[in-house]
Recover the amino acids of this structure.
C-alpha cells in the first residue's frame, strides 16, 4: 500500500508542478485568472454544470423537495451576464436576486457571505469571461410550505450565523484554512447537520449530516471519540484532500468525489496545507 501511495503522491506532485508552470497557481496577474482559482476553491462547477459548463440544471433531491441549480453563465437572459457587480455581491452575500427574490439556502450564500468583496468581483470577472449558455433554469420542485419563497425572509432571521473573522491567536495558515472551510469551499454546508427547516446547526460543528441530498450520509470532520477521521494525522488529511485516498488505502466516494475533482484537487499546495491544518486542529485542540 505504501508503494501505491507513493506513486499517487508523485503523480499528484507532477500535476502541481505542471499547474505552476502554466500559471494557474500562485500570484495571479488579473481579475479573470484570480477569479478562475476562486471558482475552483468554491466548487462552483460541481453544482452548476450538468449538460453544459455553468448552465445549471443539477438536481439536489432533499427531504424538502428537489432543488435545481441555476444558470450562472454569461448569458444575458438566462444567466448572470446582465448583472451589475453590486447585484452579484448582494446575491452572494445576502442570497437576494436582482429582482429582490430570496434564494434558497441550497445556494450556500451563508458561507459566501464570508468572502471579501475583491474575491467576489474577481469571481464575477471570470464568470463574465466564459461562454454564455442559452439554457433556462427550471423551477424547483419543493413541497409546501417550502415552496413559499416569501417565507425565506423569516428563515434568514433565524438561520444566518455570525460572519467569519480571523482568530489572532492562530497562525496565518490556520486562519486561511478556517476561511476556506467556512467561506468559499463551504465545508460546513455539507458536514454540519441541519434543522427541520434546513438551517445549519452550527453549534454542533461538522459532526456529519445524515440527510444529505439523494439519501447520502455525509461523514463527520469532527470526531470527539478519535475514531475514523479523528485519528488521522495532518498529513493524512492533506493527502486525502489532494488525491482522495484514506490512511487505510480506501478512496473517498459519493459527493466527495466531486469535491476532489472540482475543488480540493485544484487547490494550491499551500491551501491544501492550510485546510488540513485547520481540520486537524478541530480534532486536536
Amino acid at each position: 500500500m505504501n508503494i501505491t501511495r507513493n506513486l499517487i503522491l508523485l503523480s499528484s506532485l507532477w500535476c502541481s508542478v505542471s499547474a505552476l508552470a502554466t500559471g494557474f497557481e500562485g500570484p495571479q496577474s488579473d481579475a479573470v485568472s484570480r477569479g478562475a482559482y476562486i471558482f475552483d476553491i468554491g466548487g462552483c462547477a460541481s453544482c452548476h454544470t450538468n449538460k453544459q459548463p455553468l448552465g445549471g440544471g443539477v438536481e439536489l433531491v432533499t427531504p424538502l423537495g428537489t432543488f435545481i441549480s441555476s444558470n450562472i453563465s454569461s448569458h444575458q437572459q438566462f444567466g448572470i451576464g446582465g448583472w451589475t457587480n453590486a447585484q452579484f455581491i448582494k446575491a452572494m452575500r445576502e442570497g437576494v436576486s436582482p429582482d429582490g427574490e430570496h434564494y434558497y439556502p441550497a445556494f450556500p450564500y451563508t458561507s459566501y457571505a464570508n468572502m471579501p468583496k475583491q474575491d467576489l468581483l474577481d469571481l464575477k470577472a471570470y464568470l463574465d469571461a466564459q461562454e454564455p449558455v442559452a439554457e433556462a433554469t427550471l423551477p424547483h420542485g419543493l413541497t409546501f410550505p417550502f415552496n413559499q419563497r416569501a417565507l425565506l425572509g423569516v428563515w434568514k432571521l433565524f438561520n444566518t450565523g455570525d460572519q467569519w473573522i480571523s482568530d489572532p491567536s492562530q497562525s496565518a495558515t490556520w486562519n486561511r484554512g478556517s476561511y476556506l472551510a467556512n467561506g468559499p469551499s463551504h465545508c460546513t454546508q455539507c458536514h454540519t447537520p441541519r434543522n427541520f427547516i434546513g438551517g445549519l446547526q452550527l453549534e454542533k460543528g461538522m459532526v456529519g449530516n445524515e440527510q444529505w441530498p439523494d439519501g447520502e450520509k455525509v461523514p463527520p470532520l469532527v470526531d470527539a471519540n478519535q475514531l475514523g477521521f479523528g485519528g488521522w494525522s495532518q498529513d493524512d488529511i492533506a493527502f486525502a484532500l489532494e488525491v482522495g485516498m484514506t490512511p487505510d488505502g480506501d478512496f473517498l466516494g459519493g459527493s466527495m468525489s466531486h469535491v476532489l475533482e472540482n475543488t480540493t484537487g485544484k487547490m494550491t499546495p499551500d491551501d491544501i496545507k492550510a485546510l488540513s491544518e485547520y481540520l486537524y486542529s478541530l480534532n486536536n485542540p
Observations:
- The first strand starts at residue 59 and ends at 62.
- The chain has twelve helices and three strands.
